[in-house]
Design a protein that fits this description.
heterodimer, A: 546 residues, alpha+beta, three-stranded antiparallel sheet, 17 helices, 23 strands, globular, B: 433 residues, four-stranded antiparallel sheet, disordered N terminus
């Protein structure tokens, strides 16, 4: 009896002790580690992750978000009097690897000459937009386009609206028709948009504008994503339409696990889809930021490495270090991608929505861009050749040329896509000249401005450029040229084109949460602090290297 | 100055697609990009121009352009060409110095090559025609190779004879002199390759027009299974018979131009038919071998009728009986059966050449006509005029005294052992030194 009593007491004590300890421990954990639904300790199921806010610099550092500037016709007259240009801040990197450039952009209202150029450039899109589809021709009358050039059209439309060349009904009509068409485009093998589409019919075509398919370009898609983000952030009323466009695409083969961008083409022999890494220094990082603006993490594509430098006119010009003989992809150094980064993204990281315009959070991009500018000014100073180099179309064969600062081991190399050296095609590219003028307020860009600002045909738009060897104008009109010129002019008025997102959440992040579509198409979750692309720096050139 | 007219016409024809070559200062009404279209593709870049050439893909950033091109090395020059015929030839792989640039009139096989002040085109007989800018009457031409220089006749500005073309193809520089002053000097590097390319394009990539020594790829494009059993696909993978340059097998520019335009018209008609038929309209069905044979036979019959008609009209218009006294019995009273049989023979030959050999109709017709001319030759030598000439010559020979005929000194017989090879001689001389 006593034994059983003892056992009972012992069991009771043990139970009490266990229960108390459990209660104590549980109580302790609850006190010190509360898991709040949706909180940072809550491992949210996929079905719920769409609602969490994207983490940006304004949210993380509790800084005020930048604000969208007013349209030019709505700006007060003294708008630019108090504009902070950070002129007192010394050039160089900050502790966060942000960069302050030696140069400042031009800011102010457009004068009559610039307004005229803007009107003519917009006239290109008025004339060459197809009423049936809302798509604009890439090159004059030729009825085909790419996503890259469609982004240029959107850039033109945004600039036209913000510079008060068109009003909201016209802007909305154009954008809605365009986005509706893009949503309905037949994709390349039900994956991503084909490289080229017929602008009159919206049909997939090949490079000869014949019905067919080519593949897709990650760079073109990257630029398009930049402008989708600009459009959505500036005009929230278009947000649902934009989301629905992107929610038709399958990104599963476009951004790899290691963060590289992949395009696709069709193997001629087998007809199979071949995915190939796409992008070289300059364009690759710009496109990567387009993907990052939508939550993807192309971390390797955003890095400069592998890169090398070539000493040209005293400047260490960076170029892609991947050997063209091995990778079968040329490493052209041109101005365009740096301009687009500067004009549209302010040389900032995708998550940056709060730093001042003169402080560039994607520091090395701004520093490299300064080199790209400086080497062109140096060429002008040493040889007398006005230099603003970019890829551009030419009239007649070979239709397109890479007018480079450096490529294939040669400085100032002008080559066709198939690799022929064609110095006769060297030109001051209009888009490059006005882009440099907008981002580098210098004596040299004043001269470029005078060379280009009246280089137009009122009936068709701005000419592509001015031949370097005196053959006159590059008599061809393109969406890309006119779009970038409009962007440059808009940058003078409003600064960085991308404005912060002001909404709470996005359909892009909440859609298909109850299905497996998001996993299959690799749609991302709203980016958090750990998803940010790293801000890096590279060694700077302290003095001119001869 | 007839030689200056042709290049001017050629430049007018082709100038629309040559912006980098010439200053562009005028505003164009039509969009320049109109020159790019699918119909402008006249060449298959998968068919190698020479041994070792290969098709490659272009990296295109824009919305249009040629996705492929062909590159290779032949006759000491590197080359690349696009489907529209645009080509560059240069002694360096970068194609950056001493470049021959070839551009073609859109949608035709009519091309011209240019290097500096020199322009090359093909005449209607397939001969190379040179044109030079800024030359004047009395200018002298020569080919310079190092310090040696060979004077050229003024006929280099006429369609080139094969020997003259061969000389220019051997390299060096073409030098233009006005008096003692050298006006221009143009490298002839790549001349041979460019001439061959112009002919190859004009003949729609037919290897038979290339020079005898041309490194023709030893493989024909692989036939697809659908066409494997068709006679035209039985092309030998071995090098095809080649003709000497400029013999005239290359279609004339006019023929090429008409062919190109016919092709465009045909495609337009097909498009119209398809559009008119709506979505349910049937696509053009490829002809069966029987249908092809029937079409060929109909074409043959038409050709035979035309040939008979032409021959009849020629016979009727022949002035020979009126000019030369002949025996009436020698003239056939009823020539129709012979003409019919001749026409039948030509038709048979044409049929053989087109169906069995696979020649193009115009080439086959030309060969048959040449054959007929050769067959007529002995008859011509037996013409009465020739007899009269022979009689006169015989009389003259008879009047020449016998003493005037001095027998030619007979060469002394030399045995084979007395010959010494030149190389042996040099070897012996150098060995002494």
């Amino acid at each position: 009896m006593a034994l059983s009593l003892t056992i009972s007491v012992t069991l009771a004590v043990a139970w009490f002790a266990g229960t108390s300890a459990k209660s104590f421990l549980l109580a302790h954990r609850e006190v010190h580690n509360p898991i709040i639904a949706g909180g940072h300790l809550d491992d949210l199921p996929a079905v719920m992750r769409g609602n969490i806010p994207s983490v940006t610099t304004s949210l993380l550092y509790d800084q005020p978000r930048r604000e969208k500037p007013p349209r030019m016709c709505e700006m007060p007259e003294d708008y630019f009097d108090t504009l902070d240009q950070g002129r007192q801040v010394a050039a160089g990197y900050t502790n966060r690897n942000e960069y302050v450039r030696k140069y400042r952009p031009r800011r102010g209202f457009l004068n009559d000459r610039e307004l005229r150029a803007a009107q003519v450039a917009w006239h290109y899109f008025e004339k060459f937009t197809q009423e049936t589809t809302g798509l604009a021709n890439s090159v004059g009358n030729y009825p085909s386009t790419t996503l890259w050039d469609t982004a240029s059209y959107i850039a033109g439309a945004v600039a036209a609206y913000e510079l008060c060349l068109i009003e909201k009904p016209e802007f909305d009509r154009r954008m809605t028709l365009l986005l509706t068409t893009i949503k309905g485009l037949e994709l390349f093998r039900k994956e991503m948009p084909n490289k080229v589409y017929h602008t009159k019919t919206g049909a997939k075509v090949d490079y000869t504008n014949k019905a067919g398919e080519i593949g897709f370009s990650a760079l073109d898609i990257g630029r398009f994503l930049v402008w989708m983000r600009i459009l959505k952030n500036r005009y929230p009323h278009l947000g649902n339409t934009i989301d629905s466009v992107l929610l038709k695409w399958d990104f599963s083969n476009t951004v790899s696990d290691e963060g590289l961008l992949f395009g696709a083409y069709v193997d001629k022999e087998t007809g199979e889809t071949v995915y190939a890494q796409e992008g070289r220094l300059g364009y690759e990082e710009y496109a990567a930021k387009g993907f990052a603006l939508w939550g993807f993490r192309p971390i390797m594509a955003h890095r400069a490495e592998p890169f090398l430098t070539a000493s040209i006119m005293g400047i260490q010009v960076p170029y892609d270090g991947r050997d063209p003989r091995v990778f079968h992809s040329q490493n052209y150094v041109v101005t365009e991608s740096y301009l687009q980064d500067g004009l549209e993204l302010g040389f900032d990281m995708p998550h940056d929505d709060s730093t001042p315009l003169w402080l560039h959070s994607d520091g090395w991009r701004a520093e490299f861009a300064d080199r790209i500018y400086q080497v062109q000014e140096n060429r002008w100073r040493r040889t007398g050749f006005m230099t603003a180099r970019s890829e551009h179309n030419v009239k007649g064969p070979p239709y397109f040329t890479y007018d480079t600062i450096f490529s294939d081991g040669y400085p100032w190399n002008t080559v066709t896509p198939r690799g022929d050296y064609t110095p006769d095609h060297a030109a001051v590219a209009a888009k490059a000249a006005l882009g440099l003028w907008a981002l580098w307020d210098t004596e040299y860009t004043d001269i470029l401005y005078d060379a280009i600002i009246e280089l137009y045909n009122p009936e068709n738009g701005m000419y592509e450029g001015l031949y370097e060897r005196g053959q006159g104008r590059v008599e061809i009109y393109t969406a890309n040229n006119n779009g970038i010129i409009l962007t440059s002019l808009l940058h003078k008025v409003q600064g960085k084109i991308l404005t912060p997102y002001t909404g709470e959440t996005e359909v892009w992040y909440t859609a298909y949460r109850d299905q497996d579509i998001r996993e299959r198409r690799r749609y991302p979750d709203p980016p958090q602090r750990d998803d940010w692309l790293p801000a890096l720096r590279h060694s700077t050139q302290r003095e001119q290297d001869y | 100055m007839a030689h200056m007219i042709f290049p001017v016409v050629a430049l007018v024809m082709i100038g629309a697609v040559a912006p980098p070559l010439a200053a562009q200062t005028q505003d164009t009404v039509t969009a320049p990009e109109d020159s790019f279209s699918l119909e402008a593709a006249i060449l298959d870049t998968a068919i190698p121009f020479a041994v070792g050439a290969h098709e490659a893909r272009q990296e295109l950033r824009g919305a249009f352009g040629w996705p492929t091109f062909q590159e290779g090395l032949v006759e000491g020059v590197y080359f690349r060409f696009d489907p529209d015929g645009y080509a560059r030839f240069s002694p360096t792989p970068r194609l950056d110095v001493d470049v021959f640039e070839v551009i073609c009139r859109p949608r035709t096989h009519v091309c011209m090559a240019r290097k500096g002040a020199m322009t090359l085109t093909l005449t209607s007989t397939g001969q190379v025609q040179i044109a030079l800018e800024n030359i004047a009457e009395g200018d002298q031409f020569s080919v310079a190779e190092g310090i040696s220089e060979l004077q050229l006749p003024g006929s280099i500005l006429q369609p080139l004879e094969p020997r003259l073309e061969l000389l220019l193809s051997s390299g060096g520089d073409l030098v233009v002199r006005r008096g003692q002053k050298e006006v221009d000097r143009i490298s002839l590097e790549g001349f041979a390759a460019v001439s061959a390319y112009l002919r190859w394009v004009a003949s729609q990539q037919d290897y038979s027009v290339l020079p005898r020594t041309w490194p023709i790829p030893n493989a024909a494009p692989a036939p697809t299974s659908a066409t494997l059993t068709q006679t035209p696909s039985w092309q030998s993978p071995m090098p095809q018979p080649v003709n000497p340059a400029g013999v005239g097998t290359a279609p004339s520019p006019e023929v090429a131009e008409v062919r190109g335009e016919l092709r465009v018209l045909r495609e337009l008609m097909l498009q119209t038919q398809t559009a008119g038929g709506g979505a349910g309209a049937a696509a053009p069905v490829p002809l069966t071998p029987e249908e092809q044979l029937r079409d060929l036979q109909q074409a043959m019959a038409l050709l035979s009728e035309e040939i008979s008609r032409q021959q009849a009209s020629l016979t009727a218009a022949a002035p020979a009986p009126a000019m030369v006294p002949v025996q009436p019995v020698a003239v056939p009273v009823t020539p129709e059966p012979e003409q019919v049989s001749e026409a039948h023979r030509m038709a048979t030959q044409l049929e053989y050449l087109m169906t069995e050999i696979g020649l193009a109709p115009d080439v086959a017709l030309m060969l048959v006509q040449q054959n007929s001319a050769t067959a007529m030759a002995p008859i011509e030598t037996a013409m009465p005029e020739q007899d009269v000439v022979n009689d006169i010559l015989d009389e003259l020979r008879a009047q020449i005294p016998e003493t005037a005929l001095v027998p030619e000194p007979q060469a002394p017989a030399v045995s084979e052992a007395e010959y010494q090879l030149l190389s042996d001689y040099f070897r012996s001389v150098f060995a002494q030194k």
